[in-house]
Amino acid sequence: MIEVLLLPLLVAMAIGLTGRWPNLREAISLLGGVALFVMVLGLYQSPPQPITLEAPFPGLTVGFAAEPLGLLFALVASALWPITALYAVGYMRGHGEKNQTRFFACFALAMSAVMGIAFAQDMLTLFFFYELLTLATYPLVTHAGTDAARQGGRVYLGVLLLTSIGLLLFAMLGIFQQAGTLTFTPGGVFGSGHSPIMLSVLLVMFVMGIGKAAMMPFHRWLPAAMVAPTPVSALLHAVAVVKAGVFTVLKGVVYLFGLETVSGLPITPWLLGLAGFSIIAASVVAMRQDNLKKRLAYSTVSQLGYITAAALLATPLGIAAGGLQIAAHALGKITLFFCAGAILVAAHKSRVSELDGLGRQMPWTMAAFFIASLSIIGLPPTGGAWGKWLLLNASIDSTQWMLVAVLALSTLLNVAYLLPIPVRAFLGRSDEPQHGGEAPWPVLVALLLTAIGTLVLFWLPQPLLALGEMAGGVQG
Fold this sequence. Notes:
single chain, mainly alpha, two-stranded antiparallel ribbon, 1% strand, globular, CPA3_Na-H_Antiporter_D, Multisubunit sodium/proton antiporter, MrpD subunit, transmembrane, cell membrane
């Protein structure tokens, strides 16, 4: 299991050493991504025994374990790494980006941190890799080196470090003080006799301290980071950062607090209400964004609220829904960002109001955008339909009618801010002459692969759904 952490580190070193030979550098990135996915697939087929490296203090462990939620997250992230690397080759060259060696090396470092988060056996280990992921992705956010990029990077780093050190770290200390351990445990680490008020405070600090989940009001880093190149946006939204956030929420609810504890706390309905507010408010803001990447960024804030809400429902079906939604959103949103980057490279357009008639110039790209939009909305035949369906059923089973109403309204808002984009691209008329065609082939192949992935997930959800069901069903 340690090898899945070491491989991306070795890839990062090899990329640094081969920076003067771009073809070799990019081949290493691609092959490293494929190799990592194969290794994670091996762990899925035959999970190894947990590894405990050391116990620095009584009750604390540092180690790794391949539990179901971690396997699900690692499978999704490792599968998307080589596809994103392929996309980045075409985008970075087609857009004439500088510092490409640093980009690919930091991307590999980020993947090492993701694997550490996925397979952490305890919250202390996860926290270490959580912070490492923030630091590894900071150079990617500020990649352009402009004033806007540096400002976006300051917001990115400031919000994520403020929440994790100011809230999440203290939540961990409180959990350790109350339970005497931070090791992820089926059913949670709390026994009977703990104060509901104290546990409520810890749950609030834990959930709000995970800034990468982008729960309002700690969401500003996400749209601020859109100054980065599009492959970085794809990394932030689909492969690594935000998924690390909502994965940590799910894992904490299942293995630290426990479903029974969370469902009985007086603060849980209020946190569900905040998640619902984040879903609706971010969707409303997305509708007002003419910049395509910013519209997609606020869409991500909204969609992450689905997964946080699924965790806070604190039911086995809710956990299964949250796990499957991680995969569905990853495939759908990475496709949308891939398409946004393709439009920028091939047509030099970045605003929704500029896309009229673009479907005649870039039919494959806009078709992929349409498919991914259906997945984000939650419509068949795309993988997003299952995640939203399961979440709706979990909400009904828990009699959380407010959340049912939120899901219905947010679906309509998803339609309102996503579907007009491909509609105007295919049916709109533009007075501008259409030049060129699709983006470079690596970009086009990557976005078609992820679009196809959203369709495949609709017909074959069971392998990933089973992992979510296993995680949710370990209670008791």
